[in-house]
């Protein structure tokens, strides 16, 4: 039979776990540029079918650039794939607030102007936050806050081909500029900073292969089921 002290300790431990697990559920989706992170995040939001799911894109956290950096950007010599290009502290602080149930103002970034927009978006308290970005698992403070970690993996050719199409269509880029940027900055940063993040998934993380012809839906479906069960346990029905 357990002593009353042991029973009390177990009760305290259970309370601590409950407290740590309360609040909005944070899913962090990492992977190379054009691997399919945004697609995965949107499929998951659709599958969860709740107004209280918010996709927080790391793309909104590019820094304000100095005059010197702006000259480099014009010459296509700026490295947007280095962790230094992003205000990761700002993303971290915002996620801390969202995890504690606060409303936040999310910054906005323009890929055509390479600059922060003047406006921010007010986001109310959410039940589920999906944080997606190339370096979303780079900062260990964010890794530690994640309730679920996902790494979307695609081979280099697939990522480059998807990016060529997307950047021409949505980001006003030429094929030549996208190829040069890929070779000089995107792939080296993928190898140095992004691919190693897959090692941070831990036992409960999800590695999703998303090469040509592969389907994200089965992964999304099983993750949505897992999240629904967890949220039910937390007393939130989706
Ligand atoms: N499995 C897939 N099959 C076909 N196209 C895909 C697949 N996954 C992603 N894409 C396309 O590739 C492009 C990049 O995907 P996206 O989700 O925006 O990448 P990321 O957010 O990782 O940069 C988009 O045009 C998207 O529609
Ligand atoms: N002004 C900018 C800012 C970033 N990029 C590129 O965006 C990529 C990350 O966004 P994904 O949606 O593709 O994950 C990153 O690889 C940067 O090279 C840019 O081209 N211009």
UniProtKB/TrEMBL annotation:
Please name the GO terms that the record assigns under molecular function.
ATP binding; uridine kinase activity
Residue ranges of the TM segments: none
Q: Which InterPro entries match?
A: P-loop_NTPase, PRK/URK, Uridine_kinase-like
Q: Which pathway is it part of?
A: Pyrimidine metabolism; UMP biosynthesis via salvage pathway; UMP from uridine: step 1/1
| Domain of life assignment | Eukaryota
Enzyme Commission number(s): 2.7.1.48
- Provide the leader sequence positions: none
Pfam family membership, one: PRK
Catalytic activity line of the entry: uridine + ATP = UMP + ADP + H(+); cytidine + ATP = CMP + ADP + H(+)
According to its UniProt entry, one GO biological process term is: UMP salvage
PANTHER family recorded for this chain? Answer: URIDINE KINASE
Protein name (Swiss-Prot/TrEMBL): uridine/cytidine kinase
Q: What is the lineage of its organism?
A: Eukaryota, Metazoa, Ecdysozoa, Nematoda, Chromadorea
């Amino acid at each position: 039979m357990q002593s009353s002290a042991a029973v009390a300790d177990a009760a305290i431990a259970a309370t601590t776990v409950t407290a740590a697990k309360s609040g909005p559920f944070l899913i962090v989706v990492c992977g190379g540029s054009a691997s399919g992170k945004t697609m995965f995040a949107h499929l998951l939001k659709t599958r969860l079918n709740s107004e209280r799911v918010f996709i927080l894109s790391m793309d909104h956290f590019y820094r304000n650039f100095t005059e010197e950096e702006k000259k480099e950007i014009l010459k296509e010599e700026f490295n947007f794939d280095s962790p230094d290009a992003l205000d990761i502290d700002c993303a971290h602080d915002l996620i801390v607030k969202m995890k504690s149930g606060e409303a936040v103002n999310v910054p906005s970034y323009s890929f055509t102007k390479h600059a922060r927009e003047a406006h921010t978006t007010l986001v109310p308290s959410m039940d589920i936050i999906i944080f997606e970005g190339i370096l979303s698992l780079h900062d260990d403070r964010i890794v530690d806050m994640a309730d679920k970690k996902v790494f979307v993996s695609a081979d280099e050719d697939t990522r480059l081909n998807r990016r060529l199409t997307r950047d021409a269509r949505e980001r006003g880029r030429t094929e030549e500029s996208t190829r040069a940027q890929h070779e000089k900055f995107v792939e080296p940063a993928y190898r140095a900073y992004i691919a190693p993040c897959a090692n941070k998934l831990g036992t409960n993380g999800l590695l999703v292969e998303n090469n040509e012809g592969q389907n994200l839906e089965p992964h999304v479906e099983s993750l949505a089921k897992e999240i629904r069960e967890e949220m039910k346990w937390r007393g939130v029905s989706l």
